[in-house]
Amino acid sequence: MKRAPPENRENLPRSQVHPSAEHARLALREATVLMAPVALWLLRHGVSYPDFADSLKAVFLQAARDELERSNLVPSQSGLSMLSGVHRKDVRAYTLAPATARANPRPPLSSQVLTRWLTDSRYRAADGTPRVLPRAGARRSFETLCRELSNDVHPRTVLDELLRLGHVELDGESVVALASSFVPSARLDEMTALFSANASDHIAAAVSNLTLNAPKYLEQSVYADGLTPASMELLHHAAREAWAHAFQSVVTKARDSVDHDSDGDGNLRMRFGVYFFSEPVKAPPASPPPRRPKPRQQRSRTPRKLKP
Questions:
Q1: What angle is formed at CA 174 by the lines to CA 169 and CA 175, rounded to 5 degrees?
Q2: What span, in angstroms and rounded, lies between the C-alpha atoms of 197 and 26?
Q3: Which 3-state string (H, E, C) describes 201-238?
Q4: Which of 130, 167, 175, 189 is most buried, with most CB under 10 Å away?
Q5: Helix axis angle, 77-84 relative to 49-70, nearest 10°?
């Protein structure tokens, strides 16, 4: 691993965490908590575990590259592989191939079925609307449509998923598509990008606070439980009011700072945000009842003969 010429190395924030089995166990334990809402978001958008796991290779490699460069080290393929745990073959592939050239994730089977139903002329009526399909039996049926795309998943499973998502409905023994076309949502694209930026910076602040000997970022919250819906509404309203005051104050100061620094060479960015979330408290899993010892069966013994 090549070392770059020293450049203000004494000003670099040093890590306050030295990787160990214990640190890894703690981080992995809490990472699953962080990932739970992300996994739910991915599933609702049709991203499967294999696609996400494959995309994480590039994320780990970029994180390893940033960490090595922060330490004034030139990130070689061997160094990236050792730090990230990604195989050198994959490191080489990701290093040579631009991110835009990598394959898009394969949509789930239910989405593939609905897409073919809406776009294939065999499954569209003369006016362009999707045909009502018999569930099975006919040459042009929902079962046939599913089998064209996969024989690994039963058509009933695909139908259940499309029903759950509200994309189809049953009319006796026929399946009716409730959509006539896919209309991409620019608003959803904007909200998704904003969500990832906000959540990423929030977690980045916490990661810096936990791992670097550097000034601590603001990263706090208030927690309460045992509340009624009325109290929750009251607190949500209070949080919105607090955000309105904080928003106005910080925006005013941010504008003044931008104007003041406009003639300088500043290269720093900031983000200030707030969030509010509520849900029912999940009950801890019930402990299994204690196992009662099985009654021992008394073995019949032949009485010993008394010796004279």
A1: 35
A2: 25
A3: HHHHHHHHHHHEECCCCCCCCCCCCCCCHHHHHHHHHH
A4: 175
A5: 120
Q: Which two tokens stand for residue 148?
A: 């064209």
Amino acid at 159: L
Q: What percent of the chain has pLDDT over 90?
A: 56
Q: How many CB atoms lie within 10 A of CB 288?
A: 6
For residues 193 and 141, the answer to whether their CB atoms sit within 8 Å is: no
- Give the pLDDT band (50/70/90) at residue 201: very high
Q: What are phi and psi of 127, to 5 degrees?
A: -85, 5
Nearest by Cα to 37 from 189, 259, 199: 199
Q: What is the pLDDT of residues 263-283, one digit of tens each?
A: 888 999 999 999 999 999 887
Q: How is the chain split into domains, by residue range?
A: 16-101, 109-177, 223-255
Q: What percent of the chain clears pLDDT 70, i.e. is strictly above it?
A: 82
CA atoms within 13 A on the CB side of 237: 6
Q: State how far the Cα of 161 lies from the Cα of 167, in Å rounded to an integer.
A: 9
> What whole-number distance in Å separates Cα of residue 304 and Cα of residue 306?
6
Q: Which residue's structure tokens are 């003369």?
A: 126
Q: Cβ-count burial of 133 within 10 angstroms (0-12 exposed, 13-18 middle, 19+ buried)?
A: buried
CA-CA distance, 243 to 236, in Å (whole number)?
Answer: 11
pLDDT score of 99: 53
* Cα distance between residue 178 and residue 171, in whole Å: 12
Q: For residues 39 and 42, give the distance between their C-alpha atoms in angstroms, rounded to a whole number.
A: 5
